[in-house]
Write a structure and sequence with these properties.
single chain, MetI-like fold, 1% strand, mainly alpha, 2 strands
Length: 305
Amino acid sequence: MTAATADRAKLLAKRNRLEAWKRRLPLLPALLFTIVVTQVPFVLSLWYSFTEWRINPPSPRTFIGVDNYTGLVSNSFFRDAAFTTIFMTVASVLLSLLLGTGLALLLDRDFFGRGLARTLLITPFLIMPVVAGLVWKTQMFNSSFGVLNWILETLGFDSIEFVSRWPAGSIIVVLVWQWMPFMMLIVLAGLQGQDPSVLEAARVDGASSFSIFGQITLPQLRPYLELGTLLGTIYLIQVFDHVEVITGGGPGSTNIPYFVFQRSIGGGWRFGEASAFSIVVVVASIVIANLGLRVLSNLLEGEAP
């Protein structure tokens, strides 16, 4: 390679880098804004998690290393909150996935008013979590004028205070009601992506509907079911609004996000310990998010021509 050719290659590489930076330049303000509002608070929270910091009574912030993290194991309240978080997340995701799959199978059929039915079923997912919690607490679960107790009294049963008797169960019901449409849309996308000729050939060969679903449809839906499970887990592990509105963090319903709130601005004012708890939740969410992205990548690769 001559010197002129080498200089020309260096000039071309420099020009390509300059063009690449010109294309990225319009994105820099958004990138800087994202870093400021997300990464800076995360780094500060990470630093606070290694300190003992209380503001009531006011005390200086002191570095204590990993004591806040090692104290998680011996903290019985945190263990209860972790168990409640796992229980509510697993139950909500599985129930919403099962019911969403059932609704998707029904909507995959042709019938009059299918578009209207699909729109009505999606509506709960579009409602704000606080509004959904208030509606269910005051209009559905209320022992005096709630719809559920009106049905029970009509059938001859005594009214039940659902929220106080089953606090975690009441929250799960609302979460399932809101997230079932999300699961339905994901599964419905998988159902509508099936090859009709394969299904028709199976029917011609005499296969029953259950056999077709178990041997053809379900294997094809597996990536969609995994994706719905992982995305639902990422969001539902961070539930706060429903707990605050429906039970106010009463016994049996305090999950980790609400426990962090109680330990910090909710009255505990122990920001170092609360930061350690929140970092644990963030790490768990990141792990689940990475799994979800991997499943999504595999799903898209499988659909690529």
